[in-house]
Amino acid sequence: MPHVTIEAPEKLPLYIQQEMVPFPYMVFPVYVNDRDLQTFTEADHYDKLVGVVLRRPADSTGDRPGEVSEIGTLCRVNQIKKISDGRFKVTLEGLTRLRILETEPAAAITLARCEVLSEFVEKSMVSEALVQSLNALLKISLSHGKPLPDDVMKMIDYIDNPARLSDLVALYVNLPLSDLQDLLETVDPLERLKKVYVHLTNEVQRMQVKNEVNTEVNRKVGKNQKEYILREQMKHIQEELGEDDPKASDMNELRRLIDEAGLPEEVKKIADKELKRLERINPASPEHNVSRTYLDYLAGMPWNKSTQDSLDMIRAEEILNEDHYNLKKVKERILEFLAVRSLKGNMKGPVLCLVGPPGVGKTSLGRSIARSMGRTFVRISLGGMRDEAEIRGHRRTYIGALPGRIIKELFRCGSNNPVFMLDEIDKLGQDFRGDPSSALLEVLDPEQNFSFQDHYLDVPFDLSKVMFITTANQLDPIPGPLKDRMEVIRLAGYSTEEKLHIARNFIIKREIEENGLADYPLEFSDEAVTRIICEYTREAGVRNLQRTVGSICRKVAKEITQKKEPRTMITPEVVAELLGPKKFHNEVAAEQDRVGVVTGMAWTETGGDILFVEATSMPGKAELILTGSLGDVMKESARAALSYIEAHAADFGISADAFENRTIHIHVPSGAIPKDGPSAGVTMVTALVSLLTDRPAKRGVAMTGEITLTGRVLAIGGLKEKVLAAHRAGVRRIVAPERNRDDLEDIPENVRAELEFTFVNEAAEALAVAL
Ligand SMILES: Nc1ncnc2c1ncn2[C@@H]1O[C@H](COP(=O)(O)OP(=O)(O)O)[C@@H](O)[C@H]1O
Ligand SMILES: [Mg+2]
Predict the structure, then answer these.
(1) Which of 240, 529, 681, 749 is surrounded by the most beta carbons within 10 Å?
(2) Residue pLDDT, tens place only, 210-250
């Protein structure tokens, strides 16, 4: 029969405390200060044994409050260790129950006379049944999720000592101190076993009820809440893992962007409201996308982002010169314009408008201006734009609505003070969808554009820091109110010589690089370039020149990939070989002088051009036929010419009957191209006189000038373009109005050197030169 006998001295140091009820077999620590430690050091004299006993709490409702219990535990002091807070950790091992017979204070400690209580159980049916039931109950309790420490669990199956089992279980069940003390004082093991059994039964019942409630609750919690709970858990897990919930982090990111975007107060309010709305919209719905895109635009607009202006005019001039050959006057005007702006410190005032034929460098000048000011460059082409919404955007209520081009480009460039080029403003359309020019007016007007309203954005945006530059081929088609806001700078076009320079210094280098020939030493001879200029292109600018140089480069590149010997020099012969027969002939030099055919000069959208005025007569009604798509002004100019000649017939040596019963026909070839303007007046007079006096007119003389009924020659526009075009076509002599003499200095030196000029006041002077 298991049976515990422990020898103990008659007297023992007694540790009286209020925290715990130690049981036999239990190893436990107590934490004590210096004073209490003496009890345990004293144990050295008592086989390392002490008594530990509970003083009943003074406020306890149980019996004998405040008294030291009669029954305590005999413990062995296993270890004493000083711990960091200055106290001592004493490890004790419970051995057996102890009855305290008498206490006597001795100096700082208490000594007690005690008696060890031996426990002895007679194995019986009752004890066995009780042990079995307790084991079963413990297992049920385990299944309800109350774990036992591993070693205890192993022991349970082996324990056949009911005394020990009851003490173990007493520790396992959560019991208040008073119940524990009661169990300690229940010295009869069988009696104790019964009490523990009751306690454990209660505990298991409590657990059963709790689990039932839990399952019931779980069953009732709907799918939604379950999802919510799962989400919360996921969030938790993601946080643990350092990952963020994608939607939440997306919204946080958006909020951060909006907070940092520097929105004006009013706009910020709108954005915050929209943000709140967005959070409530189901991410799968299309509306979510609409709201999201809108907020992206609000957050992404450069509300307060601008680039630092560089106001160094010397550097600006250098940059303009780096990018463009010549254009002296233009550059000067641009620099003046920039200087005024930089002195004033704002962009208010007229808008720069670069007017000139295609390919003379308007767009690329705009780019250079941006570079010289240190600003970003954006460009939109207004050509063919008919819908106001393209400028101003659509309201968000439209499906697929987006901001207009102005806002879109500012969003894209990320700065609120770019150089903003409105290209081809003369090609702006207008129809039932609204008038884009009125929207543009608001954009360009410094009095209005600080609060530009885009329909999509729906909040004002300040455009006053933007530097707008417009370009046009012609001034006339630009709506008046827009024209009024502009400071016009004209670019006329280049002579062959100038084009050669541009090709040599800019175009060829660029095209060679762009077509992947940077590693091949390809050169163009000047003669080759001149040949391209004169025989393969005819234009005021250099766009086709650039294109043609590019196409030669591509052909050379193709030859290289075909493993042919790479060319190193492009000569005029190579040009002919690669490009085929020449595209343009020298109309003037190739033709003979004829009666009634006179060379004129016209000013067109694409620069200047030469034209031929042909006059002929035939028997018939006395009338004037005009053909060749002539405009009203040109027709009137023809009639005026005829009237002037009839009136002064004698002076020109024309017989008075030359007009009787004869139909006179004036035709201007290239009949499909509309022509207009008064500047062909002198040319028509000359053609008619040549016809009527039967004297051939010199092809190599090109003329321009408006004529009055009295034969005076009036000034015309675009002399430089006209002269350059005539020069290109091989004309040797120019007849122009005296009043245009000052324009001569615009014409490049070398062109001037190759031409003879006659400035005339009267039509008669022109006749003298041409006939
Ligand atoms: N004076 C010049 N110096 C150097 N390159 C020029 C000059 N004028 C025009 N170019 C070049 O010619 C090409 C066409 O010019 P672009 O600006 O597109 O003409 P536009 O806008 O007037 O039609 C560009 O590559 C430009 O750099
Ligand atoms: Mg352009």
Answers:
(1) 681
(2) 777 777 667 666 656 666 677 677 666 666 666 555 667 77
326 ligand 1 Cβ < 6 A: yes
Chain-centroid distance of CA 450 in Å reads 23
Catalytic residues: 679, 722
Q: How far is the CA of 468 from the centre of ligand 2 (A)?
A: 15
| Cβ 497 vs Cβ 748: under 8 Å | yes
Pocket test for ligand 1, best of 506, 529, 548 (most atoms within 8 A of CB): 506
CA-nearest residue for atom 10, ligand 1, is 361
Q: pLDDT tens across 9-28, in order?
A: 888 999 999 888 999 888 88
Q: How many CB atoms lie within 10 A of CB 301?
A: 23
> Which residue ranges in the chain fall short of pLDDT 70?
1-5, 59-65, 148-160, 216-217, 219-228, 231, 234-247, 347, 430-433, 586-590, 671-673
**How far is it, in rounded angstroms, from Cα 768 to Cα 697?**
10
Ligand 1 near 118 CB (within 6 A) = no
Report the Cα–Cα distance between both ends of the chain, in Å, rounded.
155
**Non-local CB neighbours of 61 within 8 Å, separated by 6+ positions:** none
The closest-lying atom of ligand 1 relative to the alpha carbon of residue 510 is 25
Spatial CB neighbours of 713, under 8 Å, sequence gap ≥ 6: 681, 682, 705, 706, 707, 737, 738, 760, 761, 762, 763, 765, 766
